UniProtKB/TrEMBL annotation:
SUPFAM superfamilies to which the protein is assigned, alphabetical: Ankyrin repeat, DHS-like NAD/FAD-binding domain, Thiamin diphosphate-binding fold (THDP-binding)
Family as reported in the entry's similarity comment: Belongs to the TPP enzyme family.
Pfam family, one: TPP_enzyme_N
GO BP terms: carboxylic acid metabolic process
Annotated ranges, domain Thiamine pyrophosphate enzyme TPP-binding: 804-925
Domain called Thiamine pyrophosphate enzyme central: residue spans: 568-703
InterPro entries according to UniProt: Ankyrin_rpt, Ankyrin_rpt-contain_sf, DHS-like_NAD/FAD-binding_dom, THDP-binding, Thiamin_PyroP_enz_cen_dom, Thiamin_PyroP_enz_TPP-bd_dom, TPP_enzyme_TPP-bd
PANTHER family: ANKYRIN REPEAT AND PROTEIN KINASE DOMAIN-CONTAINING PROTEIN, ANKYRIN REPEAT-CONTAINING PROTEIN-RELATED
Species this chain originates from: Candidatus Kentrum sp. MB
Domain Thiamine pyrophosphate enzyme N-terminal TPP-binding: 402-482
Keywords of the record: ANK repeat, Repeat, Thiamine pyrophosphate
The name this protein goes by in its record: Acetolactate synthase large subunit
Molecular functions per Gene Ontology: catalytic activity; magnesium ion binding; thiamine pyrophosphate binding
Start and stop residues of the ANK repeats: 86-118, 120-152, 232-264, 301-333
Amino acid sequence: MNQNTHENAKDIDALRGEMSKRLIDAVKQGDFKTVEALLKDGVNPNAHNPRVPLDALATAAGLGNERIVHLLLTYGANPNTLDLLAGTSPLHNACQGGNPEVVKRLVEAGAMIDLQTATTGHTPLMDAIWFKRPEITAYLLDAGAGLNQLTHYGFTLTDHLRYEQGVNPRDQEKLERCAQLVEERRASDRKKVSDQKLMAAVMNGDPAAAEAQLKAGANVDERHPILDSFNDWHTPLLVAARDGHTEIVKLLLEYGADVNAVENTFGAVPLHKATYNGRVEITRILASQPGINLDFQGASNGYTPLHDALWHGFDECARVLVEAGARLDLLAYDGKLPIDIAIDSFGDQHPILEILEPGPDARSKPRANLIPWHSRQRSGARAIAEQLKIAGFIGASENLLIGNPGSGEEWLYLEMVDEVRMGLAEPAVGAILDGAGRVRNQPAVAIAHGFVGFSGLQGAVFNAAQRQSPMLVIVGVADSQAHTGETHMYADVEGAAKAARAKYVKNATDSTTLLRDLRDAIVEARIPPFGPVVFIVGSNIASAPNTESAIAPKLPNIRLAPPVSEIELLADQMLDAKTPAMLIGDGVARSDGFAELQEVAELLAADVWASMESEINFPRNHPLFRGNLGHMDDSVGRELLRETDFALAVGTPIYQTVFNSKLPLFRAGVPVAAINQDPETTLRGHNDVAFPIKGDPKRILGMLADVLKKKQTEEQAARVKAAFEARQQQKGADLGQRREAQLREPGVTMAKFANLLEAQMKEMSQRPVIFNEALAGATGLTDYIGNVDMPGKYFDTSGGSLGEWGGAVGAAMIGGPTIAFIGDGGFNYVLQSLWNASRDKLPLGLVVAHNGNYGLLYANMDATMRKHGIEPASVPNPHFFELPGIDYVKIGQGYGVPGMRVEKEDDLKQAVDRLVEFNGPFLVNLVLQ
């Protein structure tokens, strides 16, 4: 090095030192703008200044400045650096500073929760107690902080607490609270160990006991609590692989154990445990599992399972791994390849070396300057995850996040790896998503892979728009600027979403306003009129640094209603009517207006007709419920409503048929009123609504009921009562006659199956949710099951669309026991949903109504022919409507769903009994006579 170069290096070092000092000074002063400007200019957030013992992050943590801590972490500050004097970490400093939000930020960024200082040996938990911070103590305990470490001067945590209580007369109440929290955690740990019967069976090497626990529903991936023991944070599979319990390993894998589960001490996976301990057969079993990561590098030394096998001299385990395809070119933290470890263990003449040669370039490959995942800066994807969680869209058992991954969205998937579920195909993902949203009446979330993925979801988005189902679809695209060059994967997702009638579409093209844009979408997904919301984000935005704060958006009051005077005018018209009718749709369910709707109908003895309806908005067996108006054309509805002299539509479009309505639905002069959160769909059609009312159906119907009761005369009330009683008697008689006739029919019928099923469901503590998409094959079902009178317990298709039975899978994921009735015509639309049911062992019954054809298409074709004056029997045979020779049980078994074929009436009871066990999914192929 010449003199000039040496001087330049000194100048650069001096400049860096000065810049790091300026950064730390700005942090001390709480000057956010200066800190941000310095970081944007490239100042290293991890730089130490020799004159200052703490780096920028430790300084901000000690001062409790959560905003600056967040900023520094976003720009890559390391949460595990140690100061130059005492060897404390930023987390220790945060415990001293006393801001719980700073502590939380650091832990979520990967701060080691049990890191001991170089001088005292204190853990962050010990410092939280030392500085009398009960709230931080509680958080660290909940996050799994260890309780059994010793300080460097020999104190246990208990010693530490007692000493502080003895020498510190102030704040005894806070110290007592800390002591109480520690004892509560110890009690919780003891209970967790006691409750983990499966883990106990595995540790005892008892396959029979392990199987019994798994059959009883034990969590196959339960985690041993952190007790500073050899089993800390181990799953049963990690323990069984380590301890050589081969039969238990097989059993756990059969029940879906995670083959790549990582324990937090050595950062090892089950395959490490097996090879480290020379378990050849277990190594062979694990290496053959689908999805196994043969090359996982442990956090403590960078060794793969192959490194471990060779390190401990187990050449047979090494051979199994090499034959399975383990990589030979991975360098451990000591710079050694597997072949180097083998030479150290066996010498340079051992036969194993012949299969370990990595190729000529392995050592010459430069090691990338890569950082561990937990040290990454806060990206847009991570910000999205935080925003979704704080808004209540992910993170709870009743939430659903699902997608079919592609390259480009990995940022999103990795940030939500513990929340996201995988689907095999987008149509199945869409159906599952829609079902979960409808059951909870809250939006579930899907991630779609660009335009290709979204196009597979378009049908679900369209159906959701038709019935106002809440959902949020996040579309990950390659690049938010891809449209400028029309790159390989580019297409107009925004236009496609609007074409599918998405309620709201937002394209996030600026990384600095990403969360603001996402919150717009979140608010739209949560307020009426409900419907699908589409949020588009490029991988360049998702991977860019993000400093926005995630906040829970406030929602407006949605229980809006017009003045009482308007309600009184409506009530007068309705009371004057002799044959009023009500048209209802899913807007009632979205509003939770069931009771109010029923009260209004009963006050008028009005005919109640289902219009755009896909769930129970009014009890089907109620005397006033008349049926469905039809969805193909308006001729059916016009005939059914020909005597109506006043109509009120609630939560539904009035004109909603497939074919355009050429004529008004009602006779000339019939007043029509409509209550809906969505006036645009209400007014669509012939613009013949005389009383359009925008607002919340629940509140408006409640107001209407109150006014009707005040205004109704005794004569009107008597007329209503007589009409109601007549309907009640007639409906009961009709139902009895239908049931009698149905149960007399020979062979296997849906009515007989439903009769047996209802007898079982009546005795269950939790009545299953039912999804019915069987259409023509389901004749007789709704005459028996009680679900059709229970809001939230029965769902069917809107407008006869197929493929929606996958919604039952979504319902089972978040809500418990569910049964789907599926037509053989619609079965193949989303059959990939079966894989999700099998993978998650969902409490799901699947009943295929097997009549060998698309029954609804025959019915629609016959109606069309008659409309055009053609005798249906004379048309050519539509062989393309037939579905012969499909074995639905075998298809289910291929996805891991057991089942049985029912062709004899004597087998019906066994099929029902097995269906309602709900020990995982079960399929019944009901061959209808």
